Amino acid sequence: MMKKINGLHPTEILSNREFEIAKYLLEGYKTLEIAHQLNLKSNTVSTIKRNIFLKLRVESVIDLYKLLNN
Fold first, then answer.
1. Is residue 58 one of the residues assigned to a domain?
2. Residue 39 falls within a domain, yes or no?
3. What is the extent of the structural domain holding 28?
4. Each residue's pLDDT tens digit in the chain (70 positions)?
């Protein structure tokens, strides 16, 4: 069960692309690997990753994992 943030589930806060990248991050993919998988520039993935962290108020992939897997 995912923890709610301001009464919303993370899936309600993140865009589809952000949630897709969050899943890759949780699977252990690095920025360049995600960019390659999704045919994006690494800067784009980095920006989206930063936005995920800001929206969900986490500071690392470990925090992201804890949030999405509680």
1. yes
2. yes
3. 20-68
4. 567 777 777 778 899 999 999 999 999 999 999 999 999 999 999 999 999 999 999 999 999 998 887 6
